[in-house]
Amino acid sequence: MAESVALEELLTHGRPSDFPVALRDGHVLGFAAFQARAAGWRAAFERREGRRLALYFEDTYEFAAALLGAWHAGKCVYLPSDLQPATLERLAREVEGFAGQVPASLSPLVPEEARRSDWRPLSSGARSLVVYTSGSSGEPAAMDKHLGQLTREVHTLGRLFDARVGDARVLATVSHQHIYGLLFRVLWPLTAGRPFLARSLPYPEELLAELTKGPSVLVASPAHLKRLPGTLAWESARGNLRAVYSSGGPLPTEALHACRTLLGQAPVEVYGSSETGGIAWRQRSREDDAGWTLMPGLEVRLEDDALAVRSPHLPEDSWFRTEDRARLLPEGFELLGRKDRLLKLEEKRVSLSAMERTLVAGGLLTEARVVPLQEGLRVTLAVVAVPTAAGGRLLTGQGKRSLNQALREQLAHGFEPAVLPRRFRYLEAMPVNSQGKSTEAALTALFDSRRPPLRVLEQGPEKAVLSLETPASLPQFKGHFPQKAILPGVAQIEWAIQFARELFTLPPHFLRMEVVKFQQLIVPETQVTLELTWSAAKGSLHFKYTSEAGTHGSGRILFTEVHG
Fold first, then answer.
1. b/e burial code for range 380-415 (CB count within 10 A of at least 16 → b)
2. Where are the alpha helices (DSSP H) in 447-531?
3. Any idea what DSSP says for residue 109?
4. What SS3 class is residue 200?
């Protein structure tokens, strides 16, 4: 195994010129080439006034070179998790420059030809990074990181896991644009001398193909691990898989089972946040292994039943209180769920967290999220949930109203009638973003008034058939065609994507559309059947709208795990 080198001294200390840093398209990218690329980025960044610089790259090798180049140019790097217009608009007010795959209108910097090799150690006290938390409401919050924090956290990962991982290649399904991917996919491999794959592996077939090439480490999220298809020959790669890491949210039981069965091992789950860095880890050999082991150098205590942590990964030597309830154990703690999210409703204080726990405890749901909806001047509660097998049988056999009523009866034992949820949505899986998190904004969107009334006629892992009503009151009929009310094609595409996200676990990013055709108009009060066919292997969703009149519209929509 290679010598570990601190981030501050990586380019100063150096490694042999042909030492492998990354793998791209079958080629090994060595340390000398990496140094030269970092020097080119440094030269470009040194010409730009100001310290604040935003980076967004799909290619992890290019990102790593730009990141080191920016730090050695004295810049503080801002890491957006996406390139949505609102994200870029906010960043444009916060930074003085951009680099990477951002729109040309932002004048992204490009690396220069540079021969300089006068690297100097970086300062541990430098404010080097700004990352963003996704936040339950979807509103990002900026978190500052000093280089010393990152160095200490990478050192902790090395102490814990270097021996088991060795010099295995690092494969990832998560983005380096947020803190978990940055640490596990970029900074830890760079300092440990462990090569990483320059691209993400959004599809299981690609992942399996890479795993068969040699000793590997997989950096993943719960959202990816629970989508591993049992039809692939995972046994051919088990001998090469040194470790699987999972972070970014709770690992569902089905994902734990899938990893044990298909990959031959339980993932190493890492608990922490953008604010705190890593706090603890565990590897569950049994489902009831609920305890988390503290990372070296950390202390925890309870503050008002919430877990508080003091850590070298924090900027100051003070206690930080999380929003997670916990019970302390001799070597760590057990998590008991999030602190109560309190809401005042009908002049009564309601715990949304307690309501969610009650819903899951009843045995009809595996997951439940309660969200407030603003309906006129009134706030009501709504539930987004994933049914258990028992809940699914009730939903299929007796209908949505029966399942709604059963859940309301469960809640009635502990909550007053005036605060019980009024609206429900049942999904195959919770909608997640590229970080594997379900935001309140995404959950609230499921109750949009633009959504047509529907019934699910058929549902499976790769195909679903829905019956849609198209009442004249739908806002999609208004204003598009003054002479005659017609459902626009863009609305048909929007519905296909929206319902597919509820019924299947789609990758987070739209890629492109193919063979889209609109053969017949859909007018108000038409009873329409929507057939959705999903291929996870191809990232392809096929949709088809039909009625008694024949086919109205059809097409194919492609999705990807990475933003392109």
1. bbbbbbbbbeebbebbeeeeeeebbebbbebbeeeb
2. 489-503
3. B
4. coil
